[in-house]
């Protein structure tokens, strides 16, 4: 291993904006089961499906609409 490295020609990671952040979230069992079933049908891991769904909500700028009865 070198004592010093030359980073003058280094460039930023082009994929840095695509990095994911690990979080802990509580999701209803029924919701997880739904995405796991979708996962079996599509062959895409269920966590990826959840992320894709949420990313679509962001891209579409969907606003949460809730009504209480």
TrEMBL record:
Pfam family membership, one: BrnA_antitoxin
InterPro entries, per the entry: BrnA_antitoxin
Name of the protein in question: BrnA antitoxin family protein
The species this protein was found in: Anaerobutyricum soehngenii
Higher taxonomy: Bacteria, Bacillati, Bacillota, Clostridia, Lachnospirales
């Amino acid at each position: 291993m070198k004592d010093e490295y030359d980073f003058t020609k280094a460039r930023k990671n082009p994929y840095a904006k695509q990095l994911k952040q690990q979080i802990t979230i509580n999701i209803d069992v029924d919701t997880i089961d739904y995405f796991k079933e979708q996962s079996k049908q599509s062959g895409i891991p269920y966590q990826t499906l959840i992320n894709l769904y949420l990313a679509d909500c962001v891209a579409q700028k969907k606003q949460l609409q809730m009504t209480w009865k």
